[in-house]
Write a structure and sequence with these properties.
With 388 residues, the protein is an alpha+beta fold. Helix content is 45%, strand content 25%. The strands form five sheets. Strands 5, 6, 13, 14 and 15 form a five-stranded antiparallel sheet that branches. Helix 8 packs antiparallel against helix 9, helix 8 (294-323) packs parallel to helix 10 and helix 9 (326-350) runs antiparallel to helix 10 (356-387).
Length: 388
């Protein structure tokens, strides 16, 4: 019983496959006709599909394919992946290969933390949340996803001078392709130097804003021009897509979601231990638990267990009051633990958890169990009278 997981509701085994496709600079209208509809038409022929939900934003397409409960999740994943691969030739050439993955994470967060600091600015605090705290939380067993709310993302802005570019006969596409080509490191194979083999790498990625400003952009006449000569290069941050407040003050928040197969209480307990250790190692960062779904879950669990105990005790009292026999009362009382304890054992090996459904079932079965025990006792009494 102590090893059974406690959560609000049982995990639904509905197979859901997620498809993510990205095409930088594309509008939602373009993505709908050139990407989303082609993928939807291909996966529509798959069997046991419940519904398909598509979300299109600037530059990205997210498609969720939900199958009926009888569908095997691995089989559904392979079918969707094959369908997406078969339509790959009809998708735009500049688009990245769509990602296909199985959804194994609960949709709602079980706990949310708000972090703030008087030493770090907003950009540094956002990087701290993404790089340090997120890694620490993802190391906790059962944590499936950690999302940041609020804060900013670092972004380098390149504002081109259109008049100067027109005079030099150079386009923004040329600048963009040059930036993409140099922002990568490539493997150069191996070389033998002094009798020893060494790995050769071509380092092309810039390491600072100053290096990016001095990037050479080729002109149609064969000459080169620096990037900062045709525009302004500045280190900034991307447009805000979310914002978080705690008691009226802006903060950076992290919401934690659990993976299927783990309990809400168990994951939250381990997360809290990790956060306490992490906060002790970073005293200049204030970490506050802003929201948690564990309160109602623990209250429902505690209330259901109290009702189960009270129901069992009252059942024994009622049996003794109406039958007036200590032997019959003892038999009814012994029937309860001898039936419930093996039930917990079966639930543990079957992978069930203590949730609203199972606790309600136990409460109902306790009453039926007492009724059956009384019936058996009365039948036994009647048989004895007939024999006499």
């Amino acid at each position: 019983f102590d090893r059974l997981a406690a959560q609000n509701s049982p995990d639904m085994a509905r197979p859901t496959i997620q498809i993510n496709a990205r095409l930088e600079g594309a509008t939602p209208e373009q993505l709908e006709t050139e990407v989303a509809r082609k993928i939807e038409d291909k996966i529509a022929s798959l069997g046991l599909i419940d519904h398909v939900t598509t979300t299109i934003t600037d530059g990205s397409v997210a498609i969720n394919v939900s199958f009926q409960l009888g569908k095997n999740s691995e089989e559904a994943l392979n079918e969707v992946r094959n369908a997406v691969d078969s339509v790959g030739g009809d998708l735009p050439k500049d688009m990245q290969t769509p990602g296909v993955s199985k959804v194994t994470i609960q949709g709602s967060a079980i706990i949310t933390y708000a972090i703030s600091s008087t030493r770090l600015n907003e950009t540094e605090l956002s990087w701290f949340a993404d790089n340090d705290m997120t890694k620490a939380l993802l190391a906790v067993p059962g944590v499936g996803e950690v999302n940041r709310i609020g804060g900013v993302d670092r972004e380098v802005h390149v504002d081109l001078d259109t008049r100067l570019m027109s005079a030099l006969n150079i386009s923004a596409a040329t600048v963009s392709s040059q930036l993409k080509s140099v922002q990568s490191d490539a493997s150069g194979g191996r070389a033998e130097i002094g009798g020893r083999k060494q790995v050769i790498r071509t380092l092309g990625a810039v390491s600072s804003i100053e290096d990016l400003k001095g990037l050479a952009i080729p002109l149609p006449n064969g000459q080169l021009v620096r990037l900062d000569d045709i525009g302004i290069v500045a280190d900034g941050f991307a447009d805000r897509t979310s914002i978080a407040y705690l008691n009226g003050k802006p903060v950076t928040a992290l919401e934690v979601k659990r993976s299927n197969g783990f309990s809400d209480t168990g994951v939250a307990s381990e997360v809290r231990k990790t956060v306490r250790s992490f906060a002790a190692a970073n005293p200049d960062i204030e970490i506050v638990e802003a929201y948690s779904t564990l309160g109602p879950i623990i209250e429902n669990y505690t209330g259901s267990m109290h009702m189960l105990y009270e129901g069992a005790i009252l059942a024994v009292v009622v049996v003794w009051f109406f039958l007036g026999s200590w032997r019959a009362t003892l038999l009814s009382a012994v029937a309860l633990p001898l039936s419930v304890i093996p039930t917990f054992l079966v639930m543990y090996f079957a992978g069930f958890s203590l949730n609203t459904v199972t606790l309600l079932s136990l409460s109902l079965v306790v009453g039926i169990l007492v009724d059956d025990a009384i019936v058996e006792i009365e039948i036994g009494r009647a048989s004895c009278r007939e024999r006499v």
